[in-house]
Design a protein that fits this description.
Layout lengths: L3 E6 L3 H12 L3 E7 L3 H9 L5 E2 L2 H6 L3 E4 L3 H14 L4 E4 L5 H6 L9 E6 L20 E5 L6 H13 L3 E5 L1 H29 L3 H7 L2 H7 L6 H10 L1 H23 L3 H12 L7
Parallel strand pairs: 1-2, 1-4, 2-3, 4-5, 5-6, 7-8
Antiparallel strand pairs: 6-7
Helix pairs in contact: 7-11, 11-12
Length: about 280
């Protein structure tokens, strides 16, 4: 595929990890970073995630592809402004919510230059130091409302994701947000809530550290995630998330009832029902 000059807005976990892949797979002929945090900008340079850091307009003018890797609330403001100034450039985002963002630019005259994507990968860490080599390999990426994108933009983005080792899924932005609420967003809320529960009840930090089994550690790992990223996601997808939360609370109530009543049959039935997830997750 044709190598392009790529501008990455946001050089943290997602943007920095993508930069590493674009360099390794020889997809980018040049990587230009944009970051509002001067410490992150310098760190991205020091770690050679990007070749240079430039102001937004200058970076876009020098680039063929513009990648938004910033919190989703900032995307709502920035994406229309970017589309105002692009000409031939391809614009894509890595955000975890899609419906509101797609709706924001639905009638923009340069809507076709934008490809809405969500790579299904991430960790609980943030910033350029969190960037991971080969992060996106063997993971799924969802492309939303592809028929609204220009064919050349869509095909280049698809080729890029394939070359870094991802498999593609396509769906409507509204459907994406529903599925993301059930598969991704609820996991983070559960992890935050569990961490708060333990911190509220267990006052001995050393006991938490020493007694935490692998199961607890893996369940609560996401609680270390950055609030500046996740609060906007919860707000943009709140309709679906509230639906998920209601169902999750109902399921927790069933476990509470079974334990409170000493009803082993209810508990056994609930766990056996949950075991059916083995059909999907090997």
């Amino acid at each position: 595929m044709e190598r392009k000059k790529v501008c990455i807005i946001g050089t943290g976990l997602m943007g920095g990890s993508l930069a590493l892949q674009l360099h390794e797979k020889k997809i980018a002929s040049q990587l230009v970073g944009v970051d509002s945090d001067p410490v992150h900008a310098q760190e991205a340079l020091d770690r050679e995630l990007v070749d240079q850091i430039l102001p937004l307009n200058e970076a876009i003018s020098l680039s063929d592809v513009v990648v938004l890797a910033i919190p989703v609330d900032r995307m709502l403001d920035l994406l229309p402004r970017i589309l105002d100034i692009v000409d031939h450039q391809i614009v894509l985002d890595l955000g975890s919510t899609k419906a509101q963002l797609v709706e924001t630019v639905a009638h923009h005259p340069r809507r076709g230059r934008y490809v809405a994507t969500h790579p299904m990968w991430g960790t609980e860490y943030s910033g350029p130091s969190a960037a991971v080599k080969q992060a996106y390999e063997n993971k799924a990426v969802i492309l939303c409302n592809g028929t609204d994108s220009d064919s050349d933009a869509l095909e280049w983005v698809k080729a890029m994701y394939r070359k870094i080792g991802m498999h593609l899924m396509e769906m409507d932005a509204v459907a994406h947000d529903l599925h993301a609420a059930y598969i991704s967003h609820i996991s983070h809320i559960t992890s935050f809530a569990l961490a708060n529960t333990v911190l509220g009840k267990e006052k001995e930090e050393n006991a938490i550290f020493e007694l935490a089994s692998a199961g607890f550690e893996s369940t609560v790992r996401l609680a270390k995630s950055n609030p500046s990223m996740w609060v906007p996601i919860f707000m943009q997808n709140r309709t679906h998330i509230l639906d998920v939360l209601d169902e999750h609370i109902a399921q927790l109530s069933k476990f509470r009832t079974g334990i409170a009543e000493g009803n082993t049959e209810i508990l056994k039935s609930l766990i056996e029902e949950a075991n059916k997830i083995r059909r999907i997750l090997k």
